What we know:
alpha+beta; 2 domains; 3 strands; WH_DNA-bd_sf (chains A, B); DNA-binding transcription factor activity (chains A, B); Metalloregulator ArsR/SmtB family transcription factor (chains A, B); ArsR-like_HTH (chains A, B)
Amino acid sequence: MDTLFAALADPTRRGVVERLTRGEAPIKELAAPHDMALPSFMKHIDRLEDAGLVTTRKVGRQRIVALTPDAFAPAETWLERQKRAWEERLDRLEDLAVRLEADSTDDA
Amino acid sequence: MDTLFAALADPTRRGVVERLTRGEAPIKELAAPHDMALPSFMKHIDRLEDAGLVTTRKVGRQRIVALTPDAFAPAETWLERQKRAWEERLDRLEDLAVRLEADSTDDA
DNA sequence: CATTTGGTTAGCCATATAGCTTAGTATATC
DNA sequence: GATATACTAAGCTATATGGCTAACCAAATG
């Protein structure tokens, strides 16, 4: 989870992910839009792979990078759970407020 | 976006967020379950605040921390967009495969 | 077989991160 | 007014991160 969110906390890496939703590609092609030396770029790919967001395979002298199926699932699940917990609490608070309001008008 | 994902890339901070979905709390109380010196813990709160995940206000000598409404929205939106792009591409590929298959059986 | 091309390895540098301690400051509480 | 409480500020350390260059390896290509 740490590595997943950390992998997404960098614009270069998010850019690579966005590119990969349109299909796999070799490293050279992925690197092209990012003004940086190849070894530096490679580290980002490594980090994406460590996070499980991406898989790579060697074809000839090229390394092809592809998005992992359900790559985002753990992150989405966690976020969804938090949002739900938060909204349920707001609902309970609202419910409580409504009931208190009803009580006060009963008194009148 | 960078700071948002980075803020979530740490178990202490995710723990704080999870706790806050059940309601706001002062720093001391939030810090209690995390075995670490207060100043160290404070830095995590600062990082959550910088990411816009959390707001704080001073009440007497306490600092109350609360989850920001729609705190996760940007992260969720980005993830959702990627997932959608990815799935649309898979659909197109499947569609293409089905059509190719149909063509080949037509030939037979 | 010489030369590109696409990665890869190794190692360096600057900054950021996550932790610490020690020493304040401001608000309660006795 | 003295003391305790809840931060807050300053400054230190170790490791991680994001970038670089230089040199190397292996698979094309001429």
